Q: What sequence folds into this?
């Protein structure tokens, strides 16, 4: 197996220990957030880390009703502007902890007296040291170019922060089980997918669609496949797919739809792709019964899986 696959398989162990390693710090951040009476969150990140922040943007809105902004660091680093962060928590997310633009955002936020948090995989990195609080992915060294275990660790830590600020007991219970779901998935999904994907060995163009919490998975999935297979990939929201991107789809192209529920809004989108003879993949763990926040768990569980033709059996 590849080094990338080995790192993917490390995810259950990483996710299992994150709460114990970061729980006290997360609780301190939540307590100060409430004490300061803050009313929003400003995220600064790039690439994969930015996709984790898109996930957090949805989750904080759904669970806590907290508006979140995805920052534009170049406003500071390129144009030299000064951001009025107001009463927002400022969170910088960087796997390496060396992203210069993320560091610039945290520096400016600290200068304004803002509450700042860093999420990195290196406690000794510049970004980690700049923020008042640091949440560590504790994923070990990630050698592969395509980040995997740090991506799910970032999502978990941001979800843990959401749980502590909101006090949502359902989310807390679901987070405790995420690592088990990941372990279960990795026991059967690789072999199930390999057999189904052989037909796409020479694929050159594909799309991944997602809505809400699944949208960042579509973005990240497209980036991972593009990085590792050099396939022209595009991650897009379901709602935007027919407003331009579909013009690039040709007969024989692959459309992957991520959906945490048994019936997604995207299901009715299948008609037009099928008219073009495009094969649509459906998410493997879709269920009719969905807990209030089970979508979060499905989302975490499915970061690296797809299902062909809707006929692969799975365990729940």
A:
């Amino acid at each position: 197996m590849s080094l990338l696959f080995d790192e993917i398989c490390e995810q259950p162990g990483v996710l299992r220990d994150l709460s114990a390693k970061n729980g006290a710090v997360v609780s301190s951040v939540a307590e100060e957030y409430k004490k300061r009476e803050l009313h929003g969150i400003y995220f600064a990140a790039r690439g994969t880390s930015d996709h984790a922040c898109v996930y957090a943007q949805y989750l904080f809105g759904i669970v806590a009703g907290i508006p979140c902004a995805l920052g534009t660091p170049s406003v500071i680093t390129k144009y030299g502007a000064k951001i009025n962060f107001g009463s927002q928590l400022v969170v910088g997310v960087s796997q390496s902890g060396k992203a210069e633009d993320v560091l610039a955002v945290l520096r400016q936020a600290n200068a304004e007296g803002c509450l700042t948090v860093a999420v990195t995989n290196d406690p000794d990195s510049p970004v980690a040291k700049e923020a008042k609080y640091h949440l560590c992915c504790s994923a070990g060294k990630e050698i592969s170019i395509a980040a995997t275990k740090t991506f799910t660790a970032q999502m978990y830590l941001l979800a843990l922060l959401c749980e502590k600020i909101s006090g949502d007991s359902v989310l807390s219970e679901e987070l405790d089980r995420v690592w088990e779901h990941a372990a279960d998935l990795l026991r059967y999904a690789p072999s199930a997918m390999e057999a189904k994907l052989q037909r796409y060995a020479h694929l050159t163009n594909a799309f991944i669609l997602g809505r809400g919490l699944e949208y960042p998975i579509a973005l990240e999935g497209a980036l991972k496949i593009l990085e590792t297979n050099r396939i022209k990939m595009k991650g897009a929201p379901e709602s935007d797919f027919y407003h331009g991107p579909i013009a690039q789809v040709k007969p024989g192209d692959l459309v992957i739809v991520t959906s945490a529920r048994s019936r997604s809004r995207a299901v009715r989108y299948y008609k037009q792709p099928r008219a073009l003879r495009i094969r649509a993949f459906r998410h493997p763990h879709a269920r009719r019964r969905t807990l209030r926040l089970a979508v979060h768990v499905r989302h975490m569980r499915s970061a690296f899986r797809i299902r062909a033709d809707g006929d692969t059996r799975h365990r729940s």
About this structure: The domain at 174-301 is CATH 3.40.50.10490 (Rossmann fold).
